[in-house]
Design goal:
Blueprint: H1 2-16, E1 31-32, H2 34-44, H3 46-67, E2 72-81, E3 87-91, E4 104-108, E5 113-126, H4 128-195, H5 201-236, E6 245-246, H6 272-293, E7 298-311, H7 314-317, E8 324-335, H8 343-409, H9 415-449
Parallel strand pairs: 1-6
Antiparallel strand pairs: 2-5, 3-4, 5-7, 7-8
């Protein structure tokens, strides 16, 4: 049930993140919404693929152990050419009653060619380590499934953060282009005013300096935008050379998405790390039982059927009627451990110490979860406060620039005042989008901390 909850959570997380309600562009097959990026990553990210391979390996491990409980049938065909038979010394009177007992005669026993065929069957009836090992293998399979869910959560987290970063880089690039175009227009106007004697050269130079600074910033932001898309494609498991564009814009993010849900109780089982450790504890307990059942007897049944032959000529060996003799047997093997030099005793002691470490890790994970939650909540609250402040600053800076531009156009304001207002607006915009990105990252970290990275 827990794994189903996690799987559903991954899907719900995709829906939660669609607070970015982007418009669809059916003509551009490379335009991705956040939900589409996450879906692509869950299908193509290397970490997900490797986790799936681990799950398949765990399935194969269970089947491998189960195979030990099935009948083990072995066939054998053997042909022997005794081209130089070993000689044996026998007393002379063995062949001749009148011969001497002290005289030894070398004699070759056996035939040159011999062969045998047979089929043997072994069947486990009772072996405590087998049945316990089968249970442990199934638990190991569950552990592999949980590791898959952890990989999915980590992939969703990485893709979401990279997506927001790319969206904000696009928005900053758009603003930088607008700022550059605005300054370009202002430079042409001021130059014309200077040429007509209504402005001073220092006004033109001041605007040109500011425009060169914005041009450098624009080039830097263009590079950052390209890098952010490359990082996003890497997190998605997409080839870096493949084209990609993003749907919508960062301003489509709803304020409700950044709100904090008040939570008093912590459910540790909501965190995949805690659940994985609980499964590890179960495996450690099974390991102790495995060594304990090693003191119990084991019982196996066996049966065999075959035929053997011998001849001096190889052609006679192929005569299945006269030279081949059948044989068969069946029985049981009961193995009773008596003394193993205290090996299992020390194996049990080591297994118990391993279990103790896992139980200590459980407490440490609980403490880590509480610490991460407290940090994430503080960080989110702080970043929301900063975001609201930077939004107000950006709106004020925009208004100051608007008024300064009007005053400059009407000849009652200076170019210095206008350039300073433009610089403040650019800085306020940069600060706002940095604060927005930090708030979004803090929200994702908060969802991960409460174990609901994927649920509403």
């Amino acid at each position: 049930m827990y794994l189903n909850t996690i799987r559903n959570g991954i899907l719900l997380f995709c829906l939660l993140l669609t607070h970015l309600t982007f418009s669809q562009d059916n003509d551009n097959s490379t335009a991705y919404s956040l939900e589409e990026c996450v879906t692509f990553a869950l299908q193509n990210a290397v970490a997900i693929k490797n986790a799936y391979i681990d799950m398949q390996s765990a399935d194969a491990s269970v089947n491998e152990i189960r195979a030990d409980g099935l009948p083990q049938i072995t066939g054998q065909v053997q042909f022997i050419d005794n081209y130089n038979l070993q000689k044996t010394l026998l007393p002379e009177n063995f062949f001749d009653p009148e011969g001497s007992e002290s005289v030894l005669v070398p004699v070759q026993l056996g035939v040159r060619f011999s062969g045998n065929v047979g089929v043997t069957l072994n069947q486990l009836i009772f072996d405590g380590t087998f049945f316990l090992g089968l249970k442990a293998a199934k638990t190991y399979k569950e552990l592999a499934q949980k590791n898959m869910e952890r990989s999915k959560i980590e992939t969703v987290e990485a893709v979401t953060k990279a997506y927001y970063n790319a969206l904000i880089s696009e928005e900053r690039l758009k603003l930088a282009e607008e700022n550059y175009n605005r300054l370009d227009t202002l430079l042409r106007q001021t130059t014309a005013m200077f040429e007509n004697g209504f402005s001073e050269k220092i006004d033109v130079d001041r605007i040109r300096v500011n425009m060169n600074n914005v041009k450098s910033q624009l080039a830097n932001i263009e590079q950052m935008n390209q890098v952010s898309l490359i990082l996003l494609k890497f997190q998605m498991g997409m080839k870096v050379s493949d084209p990609i564009t993003l749907e919508g814009k960062i301003s489509d993010v709803k304020d409700e998405f950044l709100q904090i849900d008040g939570r008093e109780d912590i459910n540790y089982n909501n965190r995949i790390e805690y659940s994985i450790n609980q499964t590890q504890i179960e495996l450690d307990k099974l390991n102790i039982k495995r060594y304990n059942v090693g003191y119990l007897p084991s019982l196996y049944a066996f049966a065999g059927i075959g035929a053997n032959s011998g001849a001096q000529e190889i052609s006679n060996l192929m005569n299945f009627g006269d030279y081949w003799f059948s044989n068969g047997n069946y029985g049981f093997t009961l193995s009773i451990p008596i003394f193993d030099g205290l090996r299992k005793k020390y194996q049990i002691e080591q297994a118990r110490l391993t279990l103790l470490k896992s139980e200590n890790n459980s407490w440490n994970i609980e403490n880590m979860i509480e610490t991460e939650l407290a940090q994430a909540q503080i960080a989110l609250e702080s970043n929301i406060t900063i975001l609201n402040s930077e939004r107000d600053n950006m709106e004020l800076a925009d208004e100051i620039y608007r008024v300064s531009n009007i005053k400059y156009q009407e000849g009652v304001g200076s170019s210095f005042e206008l350039v300073d207002a433009e610089t403040s607006l650019t800085q306020a915009q940069t600060n706002y989008y940095n604060a927005l990105y930090n708030a979004l990252i803090a929200k994702i970290d908060y969802l991960k901390a409460i174990g609901e990275l994927g649920s509403e």
